[in-house]
Fold:
Amino acid sequence: MRKVKTAVFPVGGLGTRFLPATKSMPKEMLPIANKPIIQYAYEEARDAGIEKFVFVTGRNKNAINNHFDHAYELESKLDEKNKSQELGQVMGWLPDAGQIAFVRQQKPLGLGHAIWCARNFIAKDEAFVVILADEMMMQSPNRKRNFLGEMIDLYQNKEDISSIVAVDEIDMKDTNKYGIIKVEGAEKIIDMVEKPKTEVAPSNLAITGRYILQPEIFEYLEKFEIGSGGEIQLTDAMKSMCKTHPFYCKKIDEVRFDCGNVLGYLEANIAFALANGAIESDVKKILKKYSN
Structure:
């Protein structure tokens, strides 16, 4: 079986849509309920069977590094006071030593460049996962395997050596915000366009932050071709690669939140708060108070 063991998390962006909050704090450390966005992404990957976690960071991102490390003074105080539940929230989810790595992007040159920075952490014959943390998923409590895990299952069941891209249906008026795919049949991708205008978009299927990629993608990314927004775009590299390497899509069937913008972030906070049985009724009262 072709095992997928490594996930890359590009977290070096500037988070300008959340200024001034992100002036000194990484966007990925903003909380959804009581847990930062990046921890949700890590736990999603872990629960899907990922064993190695590579974070591509930038300046002022040390809070992410620290979050994935022990906080000995805090842990000691909680232990002294027998606060076992709080202690579990601090350290019960941490990865084992050696499972996690951090690499600096150094310059914010785009998503494609961020992924290229992780090239030396990926084996030459190893498919790997890319997770954009601000594209959050809410897994149904009755679901045995999360969406990313099902993507991995799809990849492993394919007869050819392929790449898999998660997509979601969007309003056509929003195609200029996403990479858009063109499909043949139900799932074979034959073309991609980064942020096309509505009138030229090949579909309303948007690439949405979960990828399983073959290591050949680095050969296309290292050309450093400048695309939309003056950045090195992952979609452009995949567009070139899909001419000679098979790409397939899988439609998202979980609730997705675009936490890359303020409204999506607020919606995620409301949804996750309502999903918490301990505070659900109080949250509903608050919402009712402000919805009149």
DSSP finds ten helices and 13 strands in the chain. The chain has a mean pLDDT of 90.
